[in-house]
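Q: what does this look like with uracil bound?
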Amino acid sequence: MRGERLDKILARLGLGSRKEAARLVRAGKVRVLGQVVRDPGFRLPEGAEVEVEGKPLEVRRHHHVLLHKPRGFVTSRAEGPSVYALLEGFPTRDLSPVGRLDKDAEGLLLFTTDGELLHRLTHPRHKVEKRYLVHLERPVGPEDVEAFREGILLYGEKTLPAELYPLEDPTWAEVVLREGRFHQVKRMFQARDNRVLYLKRLSLGPLGLGDLPPGKARFLTEEEEKALYAAVGLLP
Ligand code: URA
């Protein structure tokens, strides 16, 4: 397989626009496997070492960024305030969100440049678990737990079986879903004559927020990346 263009890779890694990256290459500032390469269209062999101005560059085909989304931000480029405003310094151009969080929801939001990974993480076939913490208008009871386990009828279609775990104060609960329909958590509680007052996504498959503060983002670690790909039957 032919590798990707050098200027494109450099741009994706945050070294500027494609034009700026090409300029760096033409200026002789970029070495591949120790040799200066001046052609921005040079096809980088898989795994080849790259140095920019003498510093080694980690060449990754894909990026995955974990954001702790605060309330008040929209999962969209077009509307504001946009979650992309919280990703400054990351290669945002090619990053797409894995599912969405509503403006008034907070928690774990993953972005990736890998379309196949995104597809698999969001497709119900792969049953990737998403865990939410919710605060509700009314307490939840055993009938709600049973109804979630059965699947809830939303606009004529039953959801996949979901888990509902009431907490000590039963107006608080954790919910585990294996699919992600539009406003799904809110709509499931609505169908039970309840209302979500607060919603936070705690985890996505093997990924958790750890101690990442609200409003902050970071790249996945190598271990997280491996676990995430393994969860959907892919290799990183
Ligand atoms: N379900 C919802 O209702 N909203 C979200 O943001 C995520 C899941």
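The mean pLDDT is 92. The chain has three domains: 4-57, 64-123+205-231, 129-204.
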